[in-house]
Write a structure and sequence with these properties.
Layout (H helix, E strand, L loop, with lengths): L7 H4 L7 E4 L6 H18 L15 E2 L2 E2 L6 E6 L2 E10 L2 E5 L23 H6 L7 E4 L1 H7 L14 H17 L18 E3 L14 H9 L4 E3 L1 H9 L4 E9 L1 H4 L3 H6 L17 H10 L13 E5 L11 H18 L2 E5 L6 H10 L2 E5 L17 E5 L8 H8 L3 E6 L2 E3 L22 H12 L8
Parallel strand pairs: 6-7, 8-9, 11-12, 11-13, 13-14, 14-15
Antiparallel strand pairs: 1-8, 1-10, 2-3, 4-5, 5-6, 5-10, 15-16
Helix pairs in contact: 5-6, 6-10, 11-14
């Protein structure tokens, strides 16, 4: 018995070698109506422009689960590790780029890898290089004989709030938003939301973080998104049928590590910043997540400044000296009593997710020891006084929150006890003995003085 004729949605089988979002634009008349309904239902959450059917291209003809001809694949945008394709083909677990002119394509190793865990050393690097099992480049004639958007990262980085929200999610959206470089401050965009996020190397039980922030951010930003995992990938690969990804963003951590921006910052999400983009590119995601948490910027008076100190003193690892912590709190409370600033000493693990997001949305200056709690900086409103202050063990430094702060147009200061530094005078990355310890020094008076300086910038320079 021949299989039933599939719908367009079923034909848009999305394949992912690790983490990937599938941006799928339906091409058939019935699929067009379905896509239109999905867009309108998500418009309020994403501030997306109304669906315009005139933008839909002529549909491809499908029959018996095969494409009538194989339109060539187009690379819409690319930097190492982050690629947007139109019409990427999937068959038996392999991605196919169909083109009769392969000369202009990026090197395959800059697009995809085997999705193995990231370890150092030339042997490990070579073991991650892609083969024809991961991706093939074929002509239209070859496609007739042979026969998604996906994230191809290893699972080791997914169950961590920072790597999810401020790296994977950050990079995926920065890549996709390069197709709309006119996103205004309110975050409105004509880009349709992603319909699927596919993890080809991850099972469904291992993508959430211990604080349950990963799923909160994803569902708040894209309430209608569907997730697929390695079992779904294996099922699709075993069907022996060709799938077409009308539009796909493919993310691969190992491929991104070849890029110049990664070599400078050790942040894979820094690589898509070589693509065109709006200064307000993140406002779409921030606005949706903040709205979901019941917060809007209008709720915070423009002249009300909030200093948030994210304390790790009960965490048991990477903590300030207790006496320095107490002195810092005293100095911050002096600012409160003298100038009227709101000061919040926050233990994030004792706050609900809504409370954490709302606090970050109100915060003008966020500070704390290097650690996961500072991921909340991505929900701050970027403006003239917005500042992140990060405390390191003297001699230690990492780009994680320093780069993320700057990527959002805010100012970052690092501290080594009684010394503060900021871009361009930042130290080299280092993890000395004591970096992870519980005796990190900080000069509370210096921190307070710098807070006051940042909060007394000239009013006319504000947005």
């Amino acid at each position: 018995m021949s299989p039933p004729t599939p719908t367009t949605r079923e034909l848009a089988l999305v394949v992912v070698l690790l983490f990937s979002l599938v941006f799928f634009v339906s091409r058939s008349h019935s699929g067009t109506q379905s896509a239109g309904n999905q867009l309108s239902s998500a418009t309020q959450d994403l501030a997306i422009a109304p669906y315009d059917p005139s933008h839909v291209q002529t549909p491809y003809e499908y029959g018996s689960n095969r494409v009538d001809g194989f339109p060539e694949t187009t690379v819409v945008a690319h930097v190492p590790g982050w690629t947007i394709f139109d019409r990427l083909y999937l068959y038996n677990g392999t991605a196919y780029i169909v083109t009769d002119d392969p000369k202009g394509l990026p090197d395959r190793s800059k697009i995809i890898s085997k999705g193995r865990p990231i370890r150092n050393g030339p042997v490990e690097v070579a073991s991650r290089l892609p083969t024809d099992q991961e991706m093939r480049i074929v002509s239209t004639a070859e496609a007739r004989e042979i026969f998604g958007w996906w994230v191809n990262d290893p699972a080791q980085f997914i169950t961590h709030y920072y790597h999810w929200s401020a790296e994977l999610f950050f990079g995926l959206w920065r890549t996709y938003s390069s197709l709309d470089p006119t996103i205004p401050a309110n975050g409105s965009t004509h880009l349709p939301p992603p319909r699927r996020l596919l993890f080809s190397h991850l099972d469904a039980a291992h993508w959430r973080d211990y604080a349950a922030m990963n799923e909160w951010v994803l569902r708040a930003a894209f309430p209608g998104i569907a997730l697929e995992f390695n079992t779904d990938w294996a099922e699709r690969a075993g069907m022996g049928a060709v799938s077409v990804l009308d539009r796909v963003v493919l993310a691969d951590r190992s491929a991104a590590m070849y890029a110049y921006n990664f070599l400078r910052t050790q942040r894979t999400a820094s690589v898509p910043f070589a693509l065109p983009g709006s200064a307000h590119w993140w406002s779409t995601i921030r606005g949706s997540v903040m709205q979901f948490a019941g917060f809007s910027d209008a709720m915070q008076p423009s002249d009300k400044y909030v200093i948030t100190y994210i304390s790790r003193q009960e965490w048991g690892r990477r903590m300030l000296k207790q006496e320095d912590h107490e002195r810092l709190v005293q100095e911050l409370y002096k600012l409160r009593d003298t100038y009227g600033y709101e000061v919040v000493v926050a233990n994030m693990d004792k706050m609900s997710r809504v409370e954490q997001l709302q606090l970050a949305g109100r915060t003008t200056i966020m500070m704390g020891v290097h650690g996961n709690g500072l991921t909340s900086l991505v929900w701050m409103k970027p403006q003239r006084r917005s500042t992140v202050m990060e405390f390191f063990f003297p001699g230690g430094f990492a780009h994680d929150y320093e780069w993320t702060t700057r990527a959002l147009g805010m100012v970052h200061y690092g501290f080594w006890g009684d010394r503060a530094f900021t871009r361009p005078d930042v130290p080299q990355v280092a993890y000395p003995e004591g970096f992870q310890g519980n005796s990190i020094p900080i000069d509370g008076a210096l921190v307070a003085r710098l807070c006051h300086e940042r909060l007394t910038l000239a009013e006319e320079t504000d947005d």
